[in-house]
Design brief:
- It is built from 20 helices and 22 strands.
- Helices cover 32% and strands 17% of the residues.
- α3 packs antiparallel against α6.
- β8 and β9 form a beta hairpin.
- The strands form 8 sheets. A 5-stranded mixed beta sheet has the order 8-9-10-1-11, sandwiched between helices.
- With 579 residues, it is of the alpha+beta class.
- It starts with a helix and ends with a strand.
């Protein structure tokens, strides 16, 4: 399957010649691909490759996140209850291996993801739809589970996807789920070649062996660095640093214009900048707008940017209402005595508002985003259902900040002061800047207010905040599927992804978010989400910081560039042309 010699020869040729001189698209980026297995991957770098090698049943139209078109399916329907979905599959499609695409591949893909469901992968949100739990069988059933309980769990997996015939697949959900259709356009739902997988040692699809595959690390198995999808491009080689793909001649759709694609991991930004200017890269990843200015006007370089290219990644300054103070260096004395903060420091809404009113939105946009960004009223991209554009944003307001500070904790904060440390992940200057803006302003208010800002390495940062030790910290969330629930539940629900990090526990928010999950009526969902936005404004459990306008940098011979935030590469390779 893998043509390593061809890939290495192509890679060598690219090192000694301009990418623009041949029909090859070279993309230099930072942060290497983690894995090529759709059931394991949960990162942007992996998505760049997977979304072009594998396909979903439906896909997005161009840059729209609300318009869809058939890919491996040509039609679909759901029952009135919203817990059963039926798709008609496309005929005449082959995998890169030469195997014919049939309903059995879709059924296997779904069952396989639910069997594996690795803890560090993205299966969890589809497992929740199909099985009513985010956990895999081992985690859900526990150490003392019986064989009968495992058998019942597997029966539920088998019932999730069933072939009516070779061209018709029916999905049965645990409960109505209005987000299911868009979830099935995520990377984890990209259809794998059943026979190719089984022939190369992956799970054989039977009940006899499934328990051996629950929660395993798929990076240790064949689809980690080999692939057989139905996409417009097939894998030639991936050595961990560089990926080479080529146009699949048997592709069912229109023939792509670009013959070969090379994705190179180049962590040093200065090297990427030189490559895009010299024409050795067709596209170069640029970290921020400050750096982008170095490329404006460069010969042969095009900066693609549009006013509506607002990022769908939502960044937040989180307030932890239930800080874990055990062996926590960031809480000082652990008391409200001027030398620290207690565990419930941010449990008071006035305390949270005190900090929110010390954030200068415009300064952040001007200084960090180079004037290209938009303040958010709630933790949701403005293009998503239920966003409240009629709410004010918390902006720098010293009078309102002082009023909130004096009211917090019965006046003890204003009288005694505080001393604590906020955190961000090392290297993320955007998050660092957001915290420092607040630090500078709040320390100016009262000589007893002291707030330090420190960095933590990414793995340490995730572990630290997951333990509930983060006091005030900055993190973000990018959508795996285009639905508002993917933001509002993780942010605002007491069982959401961030709840252990923030201690959020608001029954009213929980009820609204749960109700939105139980209806397929878009108008009802919009109203419920707008109510969430109002409560989030009133209570300020976390502070959104402005979202940047996105941009893409290419050589000027790259045509057909667009930005769809649901793609890791922001556009598909099959849609571009090299002039």
């Amino acid at each position: 399957m893998r043509k390593a010699f061809t890939g290495l020869a192509l890679a060598a040729a690219l090192l000694f010649g301009s990418a623009s001189a041949q029909n090859t698209f070279v993309y230099q980026t930072f942060g290497g691909i983690d894995t090529l297995d759709p059931a394991q991957a949960y990162d942007t770098a992996s998505s760049v490759a997977i979304e072009n090698i594998y396909e979903t049943l439906y896909d997005y139209v161009g840059e729209s996140v609300t318009e869809f078109q058939g890919s491996l399916a040509t039609d679909w329907s759901s029952n009135d209850a919203g817990d059963e979905y039926t798709f008609t599959l496309r005929d005449g499609v082959t995998f890169h291996s030469g195997n014919e695409f049939t309903c059995a591949d879709v059924e296997y893909t779904v069952e396989r993801m639910l069997v594996h469901n690795p803890s560090d992968g993205g299966v969890w949100f589809l497992a929740e739809s199909f099985l009513g739990t985010q956990a895999n069988a081992d985690a859900f059933l526990g150490d003392d589970a019986t064989d009968a309980e495992y058998a019942d769990y597997f029966a539920r997996i088998q019932g999730a996807a069933e072939c009516i015939d070779d061209s018709t697949i029916q999905f049965t959900l645990d409960a109505p789920d209005p987000t299911f259709f868009t979830k099935m356009m995520s990377d984890v739902a990209r259809i794998v070649d059943r026979d190719f997988a089984i022939d190369n040692g992956l799970w054989d699809g039977t009940e006899a062996t499934w328990r051996d595959w629950v929660g395993i690390n798929l990076r240790e198995h064949h689809l980690h660095d080999a692939a057989s999808g139905t996409g417009a491009y097939e894998l030639v080689d991936w050595d961990g640093e560089q990926l080479v793909a080529q146009r699949y001649d048997g592709y069912w759709g229109d023939t792509p214009a670009v013959q070969d694609v090379v994705v190179q991991t180049v962590d040093e930004q200065s090297t990427r900048l030189l490559a895009i200017q010299a024409g050795d890269a067709s596209r170069g990843q640029v970290d921020d707008r400050a750096t982008l200015e170095q490329l404006r006007g460069a010969e042969g370089v095009t900066i693609h940017e549009e006013p509506n290219w607002l990022s769908t990644t939502v960044g937040m300054v989180f307030f932890n209402s239930n800080i874990n103070t055990d062996n926590n260096p960031d809480v000082g004395s652990g008391q409200l005595d001027g030398d620290g903060i207690p565990a419930n420091f941010f449990d008071d809404a006035n305390m949270r508002k005190c900090f929110a009113y010390n954030f200068d939105q415009q300064a952040f946009i001007d200084q960090v985003l180079q004037g290209q960004g938009e303040a958010l009223t709630m933790g949701l991209p403005p293009s998503f259902l239920g966003y409240r554009d009629d709410l004010p944003v918390y902006d720098v307001d010293y009078a309102a900040a002082e009023e909130a500070c004096q009211a917090a904790h019965g006046g003890a904060v204003w009288e005694n002061g505080f001393d604590f440390t906020a955190t961000y992940n090392a290297g993320n200057t955007t998050r660092q800047a957001a915290l420092n803006i607040i630090k500078d302003n709040i320390e100016f208010m009262n000589p007893g207010f002291r707030m330090d800002v420190r960095e933590l390495a990414w793995p340490d940062y995730l572990a630290y905040t997951d333990e509930g030790k983060g006091t005030m910290f900055a993190l973000g969330w990018a959508p795996s599927y285009a639905d508002s629930d993917y933001f509002l539940h993780p942010f605002y629900h007491s069982e959401g992804f961030y709840s252990g990090r923030t201690g959020i526990d608001n029954p009213e928010l929980d009820a609204l978010i749960d109700a939105a999950r139980e209806t397929v009526d878009a108008d009802e969902r919009e109203d419920l989400y707008q109510q969430v936005g109002q409560i989030a404004y009133d209570e300020m459990p976390m502070l959104p910081y402005p979202s940047p306008n996105e941009f893409i940098v290419t050589r000027d011979n790259v045509q057909g560039v667009y930005l769809n935030p649901m793609y890791g590469g922001q556009f598909l390779w099959k849609d571009i042309v090299l002039d």
